[in-house]
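Sat 14:20. Reprocessing the chain from the morning session after the first attempt stalled halfway. Input below, unchanged.
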Amino acid sequence: MLTSNVSSPERNLLYAFLLILFLFQLHCTDNSLEQPALPPAAPGMPLSIGTQWSYTVTHYDTLGRVVKSMNRYTKVVGDTMIDGTGYSILSEDTTERFIEYRYPALVNDQGYFRRMRYRNGTSSAERDTTVLGFRFPAPLHSQFTTEPHYYAGMDRLIADTLTVTSLNTKAIVPAGEFQCYQYVMNDNSYSLDSLGNIVVHRNFVVVHHLASIGLVKTEVYWTHQGTLQLLGVTALRKFEQQ
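Finished this time. Tokens:
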């Protein structure tokens, strides 16, 4: 997935393919204490060829004003075999041409996984690996890592951390109301100071995910002048299953 060395706001908005325990309640109501956990869907997130997700992506400035709004689409466009394992091919684009970006993904009884490529910041060598995107079913407060990547000048692999913060949260999006798992990801970015020390730039992503549909909503927060602010929202607008 990653060939660049620094994460960007748009990547943060789209993936969710990732969380530490830090819960926000913007535009959703947590019913974890009142309702049982959502049962895992069978066979899980739909990855049949032709299935499509349409999203609205909204960016905000530091005053909470909308500065950009765009559509984003994801579609299952094919399938393939990698090391004897079957994968679906997903394509993401800002139009419905589906030529911008493609990657293999699969769903099993452990959750949703995707194939990604990353490059060591001090080397031209690239590696392909399968990483966990979302674990489901999963216990409340469980944590797992996802999406390893290198950063410029660092001969060090860093992975994002995800935490399950709710097993049954209502997410309200243009496509409707959905009871979802809620994950929080510490999607931090990193740089080196003049002494070569790692500087962490704190970012958080709240993800609402439903096993029978997939990604429903993400809310991206970043630290600006010591204050955590909403940077952008990705919301499901339409889901078409084949």
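The chain has a mean pLDDT of 76.
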